[in-house]
Amino acid sequence: MPRVTLDVSVEEIKALIFQLPAREILALADIIEERAETVAMMQLADTGFREWNEESEGIYDAEA
């Protein structure tokens, strides 16, 4: 499936969102908050795996 990209500014997105009914704005805010939390947790978890990239940690790559 081809990927479509749009050249839309944040201001244009805000203008479109503010045209939605309040209930839909609140639902969208919940979805955005959930996504932001997921991204933040993934970034935090990523820092925990950096030590595995150290050469001295090569024991994890050994096959049994």
How many structural domains can be distinguished in the coordinates?
A: 1
Name the poorly predicted regions: none
Structural class assignment: mainly alpha
Helix amount: 55-70%
Looking at the structure, what is the overall shape?
A: elongated
- Overall pLDDT confidence: 85
- Taken in chain order, the helices and strands follow as HH
What can be said about the biggest beta sheet? none
Number of strands: 0
Distance between the termini: 41 Å
Evaluate the radius of gyration. Answer: 20 Å
Tally of DSSP helical segments: 2
Beta-strand content: under 5%
Characteristic terms for this protein:
2 helices, 64 residues, single chain, mainly alpha, elongated
Protein model, in words:
This protein is mainly alpha-helical and 64 residues long. It has one domain. Helices cover 56% and strands 0% of the residues. The longest helix is centred in the middle third of the chain and has 28 residues. It is elongated, with a radius of gyration of 20 Å.
